[in-house]
Amino acid sequence: MDPLAALIQYEIVLFLGALALIISIQFLTGKINRRRLLYAKGRAATDDSAQRKTNPSTERRTNGLSPSRLQLLVVSVGVAIYLLGVVIIDPSQYPDIPLGILLLMTASSGIYLASKANNLSRRRTSNSET
Fold first, then answer.
1. 69 and 98 in contact (C-beta within 8 Å)?
2. Spatial separation of the C-alpha atoms in residues 54 and 67, rounded to whole Å
3. What are the CA-CA distances from residue 63 to residues 21, 38, 44, 120, 128 (Å)?
4. Do 44 and 67 touch, CB atoms closer than 8 A?
5. Is there a contact between 111 and 71 (Cβ–Cβ < 8 Å)?
6. pTM of whole model > 0.85?
7. 75 near 108, Cβ under 8 Å?
8. Is the separation of the CB atoms in 112 and 31 below 8 Å?
9. Which of 62, 20, 71, 58 minimizes the C-alpha distance to 39?
10. Which pLDDT tens digit goes with each residue over 38-93?
11. Is residue 88 packed enough to be buried (19+ CB in 10 Å), middle (13-18) or exposed (0-12)?
């Protein structure tokens, strides 16, 4: 292997490892809030528009699990486990990512973004009505 390519490969692995370590430490120390991470937030969490008008604090309240957040997490973790398994089997090279996995990740992210866009359009519609 070319020494420059090997250096770049080690730098990428070092960077990703450091990033994972920093995020893990912040999760463990509580600097990243993990409470209700998968719950709907904002107006997506409230269905009663009369309740929103009488109590504006409900805009920050959460009501239940967000299906779009949950499916994005499950798909991402599943793909990560699959790729980790591929790397464990043959650690000498980067894994080839099959087209099906790319399409699965694209669809999952698209569902999440469509949900966010729907919530944003509902927020704009309800703001214009008031």
1. no
2. 27
3. 32, 11, 9, 17, 24
4. no
5. yes
6. no
7. yes
8. no
9. 62
10. 887 765 555 544 444 555 544 445 468 888 889 999 999 999 999 999 999 988 88
11. exposed
Residue 61's identity, in one-letter code, is: R
For residue 39, which phi and psi values (nearest 5 degrees)? -90, 155
CB 52 within 8 A of CB 43: yes
Q: Residue 49 has what pLDDT?
A: 47
What is the spatial distance between Cα 52 and Cα 22, in angstroms, rounded to a whole number?
Answer: 38
> Residue 108 pLDDT more than 70?
yes
DSSP 32-86: S--TTTTB--GGGG---HHHHHH-GGGGS---SB-HHHHHHHHHHHHHHHHHHHH
Rounded (5°) CA angle 96-99-101: 85
Q: Which residues contact 94 (CB under 8 A, 6 or more apart)?
A: 87
